[in-house]
Amino acid sequence: MNTPTSATDALTRDALAVLQPGFTGTTAPDWVLRRVDEGLASVALFGRNVRTPEQVTALTTRLRAEREDLLVAIDEEGGDVTRLEVRIGSSFPGNLALGYVDDVDLTREVAQELGRRLAGCGVNLNWAPSADVNSNPDNPVIGVRAFGADTRLVARHTAAYIEGLQASGVAACTKHFPGHGDTAIDSHHAMPRIDVDLETLHARELVPFRAAIEAGSKCVMSAHILLPALDPDRPATVSRRILTGLLREELGYDGLIVTDAVEMRAIAGTYGIERGSVLAIAAGADALCVGGGLEDDRTVLLLRDALVTAVRSGELPEERLADAAARVRALASWTRNAKEAGSESGAAAQEGSASGTGAGCGIGLVAARRAVRVTGCAQPLTGPAHVASFTSASNIAVGDETPWGVAVELDRLVPGTRTGTYGRDTEEPVAAVVRAAGERRIVVVVRDAHRHAWMGQALDTLVAQRPDTVVVEMGVPQAPPRGALHIATHGAARVCGQAAAEIIARGGAEG
Question: DSSP 3-state assignment of 177?
Fold first, then answer.
């Protein structure tokens, strides 16, 4: 579909305005600059675009030389999902850690400091927080990205996060509407389905989104999930009943609605990205996220022309596309007005640093330390340990580029610490760990051990052979504690690993 269009045509500009594409590289490609000049109102940054804060600042400055009110979006949840610190791990714990502490002031402070860092780099739209209620502990894609499994807890921390983030001048994007927590399938790979009744949806999934709307969330992201109680035929992203009927009309939301990435298999494999994009805008979405996997000019032109053709054929009302584009521009206007307030909050944070409070104390590390749960006891390390990381495939949202664990931090505290990685396919993993450890204390690091039978079996066998083993669970701590000392960090951010390493090095006891 390659309908010729004019760069100055209002319809074309509206079609470009609703796209939020990604791109390759750490500098702005020429094609992105051209599209911005033609009407593109947003771009998205991913880990591949990030090297240093200074480099990101230079990148966003160059982009805004073409359009001052450009929306620059990023998927920076903190915790396991980080783009700014993709190569070293996040300085902030994720949602589950914050929910475990259950201090809304702390959540608000963490979100504001994260927003201050984003704003300092020129990012003004964050695809966070996740307002999903992780009611299914076997959920393969949400897990520690949720504040927890309790609806009211998730609601109050979602609101606090939005307030903190937007106080920094960065727009929050609450996701994944109407709730991705009760799924057993990752929508990156296939179409999840939630078979619960309307009463359950309103009492569980929708409560945090109501709180988000009340807190003033500037953006809401749709989920590629099928909820037959709401719409038996179409997933939320392309459902008018859900986006317009429920979110707009019933819940009264008037901000920007953006889709989850349209190249995810739940949409691309069902409708194709072009048709799926048209259906999403027609259903009530205002912006289309694309670029996690497709990051080229050809994709942008395909989607632009698909929207233009749909309007010209009568399939997509022109006023619907114009309304969507207007909402994008309205959010861009809000970010410009909020920029001064964000700068003031940044100055306040720096003053706090000078006085020994706020960001200067490392609010992320403070939160991570508070989020640790310790079971059992162990003596301090008298020498280097052997850290055994039991690993499984990462979901696409988290990715496998970001390091996690405790080995680096433990080696900093106890030099000479060694590490090894062991997976489901490792031949006799317990024997391999014991052989590699020798006389050293064994520290086993896992994520979501309850979801991986081989991990549980290996842990049981290892602890039976080496009772002084320390186990660190950096995912959802659903499995019973194992080991002489069991540390649940409620997330795998770098600061969570640091908090665990401190306990291991000095010895720990529950209390």
Answer: strand
- Report the pLDDT averaged over residues 1-21: 76
Q: Is residue 348 predicted with pLDDT exceeding 60?
A: no
Residue range 474-489: mean pLDDT, rounded: 95
Contacts with 369 (C-beta within 8 Å, 6 or more apart), sequence order: 499, 502
**Tokens at 383, concatenated:** 């020498």
**Residue 463, C-beta contacts closer than 8 angstroms, at least 6 positions apart:** 469, 471, 482, 483, 484
Nearest to 267 by CA among 235, 293, 299, 220: 235
Buried/exposed 65-81: b ≥16 CB within 10 Å, e otherwise = ebbeebbbbbbbbbbbb
Determine which one of 180, 188, 224, 386 is catalytic: 188
List of residues 6+ apart from 243 with CB closer than 8 A: 222, 236, 237, 257, 280, 283, 284, 285
- In the residue annotation, 260 being an active-site residue is answered as yes
- Residue from 186, 231, 260, 286 carrying the catalytic annotation: 260
> How high is the pLDDT of residue 3?
42
**Alpha-carbon gap, residue 266 to 83, rounded angstroms:** 23
The residue written with tokens 């966070």 in the block is 128
Helix segments in 88-150, DSSP class H: 95-101, 104-120
Distance CA 451, CA 212 (A): 30
Range 106-126 burial, b when 16+ CB lie within 10 A, else e: bbbbbbbbbbbbbbbbbbbbb
Sheet-wide strand order for 386-391: 418-423, 386-391, 442-446, 470-473, 485-488, 373-378, 508-509
Q: Is the pLDDT of residue 497 over 90?
A: yes
Three-class HEC string of 183-206: CCCCCCCCCCECCCCHHHHHHHHH
Provide the pLDDT for residue 274. 95
Whether 296 sits among the annotated catalytic residues: the reply is no
CA distance linking residue 297 with residue 60, whole number of Å:
18
Q: Which residues contact 510 (CB under 8 A, 6 or more apart)?
A: 374, 375, 376, 377
Helix (H) or strand (E) holding 352: helix 318-354
Residue 85: closest CA among 495, 370, 388, 396: 495
| Biggest distance spanned by C-alpha atoms of the chain | 74
265 token code pair: 């298999």
